[in-house]
Every structure is written in C-alpha cells, then in structure tokens.
Amino acid sequence: MMKEFLCTTCGTQYAASNSPLEECVICKEERQYINPNGQEWTTLDDMIQSGKYRNKMENEQDGLFSIKTEPEFGISQSAFFIEEKGFRLLWDCIPYLDQETIERINANGGIDAIALSHPHYYSTQVRWAEAFDCPIYIHEDDKEWVQQESDRIIYWSGEEKTLASGLVIHRLGGHYKGGCVLHWENGGAAGILLTGDVIQVVPDRKWVSFMYSYPNIIPLPASTVERMANKVGSLQFKELYNAFNRHVKSDADLVVQRSAERYIAALKGEWFTT
What is the full DSSP assignment across 150-162? Predict the structure, then answer.
C-alpha cells in the first residue's frame, strides 16, 4: 500500500511509496542527524489515528498566532500564522495537521499562502497546502531538499520576494543556501522579523546566533555571518521571533548586529582567550 512516510526525527514527509527509504535524506547529512536508535518512520494518518497529538494555537500579538504540536514531535518547531490587511500567511510548517486545526484556521479566514525559511520545516507542507488550497513559496536554492513535489510549490529566485503588501521574504543563506527570513513591515509597533532558525534566538534574549548545524554545533564562516547581518541591516524591525517561540521584544535590529559582531570576533580569536 502506498503511503506518505514521515520521518519521526525531523518530521519530513516523503512522496507516496510502498516502503520508506533506509534513511531520511534530510537527517543523514550534517545539519541534522539520524536517530541514534535507528531510522524510524510514521505517517500523518497514523499520528491522527493515535489520538495522541493536538496543535496548540497561541495569540502572540495582534495579527500573529503560533502553532505548535503537543506533545513534542520531530524538531518541535512552531509555525506562525500572520494576517496582514486580509492576507493570511503561514510562515514555516509543522508535521501534524488534523481536522480540528483545519477548522480553527478556516474559522479565522483560512490560509492564502505558505512560505518556508529552510528545509528542516518543510514537514507536511503539501498536506497543508492541499487542505487550505494555497501555494507554497520555497527559494529555488533549496529545491534539492524537497522530498514531495507538488504543483502548489512555487520556487522563487533572487534575494527577496513580496508575498503581499508589508510581507516580504528575504534570502540570507547561511544555515542553508536558500535560507530565508520573513519581514513583516507592519507587525508590532515598528516591524517584526520571523527567522525560523536562520537567525536563532538564544536563551539570553539580548542575543541571537547563527549556525550551519545546530544539533552538531558547526559554526558558519565569519564572512557569511557578516553578509547575513548586512542584509538584515537594511530592514526596519524592532521584534524578532524564532521557530521555538523565543521572542526578542525590543531593539531586535540592534541585537542582530551586535550578535553578529560578537560571533565574528569570537571566530577570529579577538573576543576572548582561553
């Protein structure tokens, strides 16, 4: 029987097949990892039938909701639902989607588009797009990591893509070649940047960081971080949300710049000696 197998470690759903791969393509390279106990698979349908999971929606602020699965599954990221002047965007994706979630989102107007920061959050994006009859926006530089093709996927190119007035995706690279952030120009009091973990908010909310691989602690080159900070430096924002509900509540633009400066100084051996 053909099934859309889903990796339990990263939450990536694959095109329908009679049997799963021996190893998840996303997990077996250095930015992720294969489960130490061995590769494990499930399906979204099996998750739903288990009755174990539910999606929790939190109102973060006016026009912004986070969506997270409980109990934690896969990477355990949150997706974000943004409404801007009647346009409803899902930023990043989570693996779990059930009828209750569909009905709650449709009660708020549905979803007009899905946009992704990078491949670790593609998850069940095709199922989401089919459920809400909307397109998916992925930077073409990360096309090779898409494991379930669909006519709904729009591969965009260049350095930025306007989805609607006040909602623009910017390619920063770094974590992945096509790694992107979302600039919500009218969000909050003075603009919001949603970053997945292309820019990562650390436990000390006065700082952010940058990585090639988070689970395997592989840093990015200083030149790459400098380029990313320069690109973000042209945007107007004062708040920043990552994919794990960590929120820089003020002066986020300055936080990104001083964090990049510290990161680069550390890599060059100019910040500390041990």
Answer: -TTEEEE-SSEEE
